[in-house]
Write a structure and sequence with these properties.
The structure is a single chain. The chain has about 200 residues and is an alpha+beta fold. Helices cover about 30% and strands about 25% of the residues. It is built from four helices and nine strands; from the N terminus they run H-E-H-E-E-E-E-H-E-E-H-E-E.
Length: about 200
């Protein structure tokens, strides 16, 4: 009898450890440690002099315009290619009555998910508060949205996922090639010895 009790306790302990291991494995399956963000899609910048900034970046500095493209009706902002990330500059941000226009600032950050539906499911599983996705149903004759956004809650600046109905990867790669093939102007800087710093040339 005295020997049976320790054996029984040992069996119960081993069974409990096995159940704990199985439940832990199940949790790992339910919450895989995998990335749901593919990359930063674009950075939103707001400034009272939005049109002047767009002119400086696209006309003076010759950076490519990612959006709007020919035939598109979007007019609120301009997307400017900076390589694999787009800078979106709003033209005329509104200022509430009685307030002074704020200085230029980054207002939002848009993330491109690997897949939006998967990202929404993973946000729920990981306990990250987020906005409800927009309804898929549309009125008769209403065109399909060109992009879908889902915001994340609890951040000082707006942070959201965005998924496009068109191939943004192709568009981004196209303007990245434009940047890569742009002619290089002679640098006005010359290296100083072996230092990584440069000084302005007097010539």
């Amino acid at each position: 009898m005295t020997r049976w009790v320790p054996d029984m306790v040992l069996r119960v302990c081993l069974s409990s450890l096995a159940l704990i291991a199985l439940s832990h494995a199940a949790m790992l399956v339910q919450h895989p440690n995998e990335a749901i963000v593919r990359q930063v899609d674009h950075v939103l910048f707001m400034t009272p002099s939005g049109r002047s900034l767009v002119s400086l970046l696209t006309e003076t500095l010759a950076l490519p315009i990612v959006f709007p493209q020919a035939g598109e009706t979007w007019t609120a902002s301009t997307g400017i290619g900076l390589g694999n990330v787009t800078l979106e500059v709003f033209h005329n941000p509104t200022t509430p009555p009685g307030e002074v226009p704020r200085a230029g600032r980054i207002s939002s950050l848009a993330l491109q998910p690997v897949d939006l539906e998967t990202a929404i499911r993973e946000l729920r599983l990981r306990g990250i508060a987020h906005d409800a996705p927009p309804p898929k149903a549309r009125k008769t004759g209403e065109p399909a949205p060109r992009w879908t956004t889902v915001g994340l809650e609890g951040f000082g600046h707006r942070l959201f996922f965005i998924q496009y109905a068109f191939d943004m990867d192709e568009r981004r790669a196209r303007f990245d090639r434009i940047l890569a093939g742009a002619p290089r102007r002679p640098s006005r800087y010359r290296p100083v010895g072996r230092s990584r710093y440069c000084s302005r040339s007097t010539q």
